[in-house]
Structures are given as C-alpha cells and as structure tokens.
Amino acid sequence: MHKAAPRHALIGLLWSAFFACGHVSPALAAGVQINLIAADGRPVADAVATATPIGAVPKRPRERKSTAMDQLNKAFVPQVLVVESGTSVDFPNNDSVSHQVYSFSPARKFQLSLYKGELHAPVQFDTPGLVVLGCNIHDSMVGYIYVADTPYFGKTDRAGILRLDQVPRGRYRIQVWSPSIADEPGSMSKDLEVEESGESAVSFRLRKPLRSVPQPRPHPEGWDAY
Ligand SMILES: [Cu+2]
Fold first, then answer.
1. b/e for 68-90, b at 16 or more Cβ within 10 A?
2. pTM of whole model > 0.70?
C-alpha cells in the first residue's frame, strides 16, 4: 500500500498536466438538449434545430465545409439539409433520369441545367435562410436547405431530441424548423443562457397538428426519357 503511493501521486500529476494543456476544457462549454413534441404528444423527428449565439459569444472559427444533397428515385435525399452559412453543397444526381435543379429563394437563387451524375460544381450557401429546391422536370421533387448562422445545429432524432455538445457559454437563440410544422415561426424560438458546464434543456410543444409535406410521387417508368 505504502509503496504504491508515489505511483498514484505521479499519475495524479500527469493527469493534472493533461488538463492544464487545454486538451479538455470542461469548464468552458456545456451541452444543450432540444426537445420537439407534436400537439398529440409524439416526438417530432427530422426537424432542424439550431442554437445561434446572441451578442458577444465568441464564434468558432469558420471552417470550409462541404456536404451533399443527393437525388434518388425522383427525390432529394435528404429532403431537409441543414448547413452552416459558408458551406458548399454538391448536388450529385444518382438517379436513372436527369434532373434540372433550381431555387428561387432569396437566400440563394441558382439553377443547374439538366444533368445526371456529377456534372455541376458545388453551390455555396452564404446567406442564412431557407432555400427551397425544385426540379423543372419533376414537379413533385421538393427539397429544403436550411442555412444556419451558427456551427451549432442538427436534426432531431426519432425521440424528437437533438443534443449539442461543447456549446460555449453565452446567450443563444434556440430555433426549430421543419416543413411539417404548421405553428407560427415566431413560436418556434426561445432564448437560452448556456452556462459554463452541465446540460441545459429547451422544449417545444407544437400547438397545431403537423401538416403533410409534399412527398415525391412515383411516376410510371418511362414517364420521361431524359
Ligand atoms: Cu427531376
């Protein structure tokens, strides 16, 4: 027992040195849990949830980011994509037919001429806001890119929950969005003070029933020859 003591002391010293190096700084950031519940009490999955700093929260340095929204079976996959402003999005078409992707949304207007595969360069999304995507050939194709002004975002899981880790302390606006939410957008926002550590939780309970979102309708094979 008494011979083991110096070894314990050494381990303790190394452990303190590890923390002192700044590899882990549990005192500066906390977890945020966002819950979304429908009017009927069921969890709402696949909704966008964001925590946007208000005022003087130090912003994490913006990295160059890229991601993709695919096209499969005449649908955008995923149908809802959330990205931080400044992100480039690829629109590969892995379908058997060609698509002509466009957006008329003020946050990002663009058009990709009729294509298959990976013909077009990625599109950059710099302005926060909602970008609604369509296809000039297939009216049933609808996709959404939610451009967030924060690196703290995600989508709710099957339990209607999104957990954000390592959120620096400060004041945040917590917002949730989904094309199936019929409630006023203003009611889908709450401010939250994130402390130095621990976990804060914010819950949203919808008042209106979820609305149906345009879903891709299967066309008979050979409906178009592109
Ligand atoms: Cu199409």
1. ebbbeebbbeebbbbbbbbbbbe
2. yes
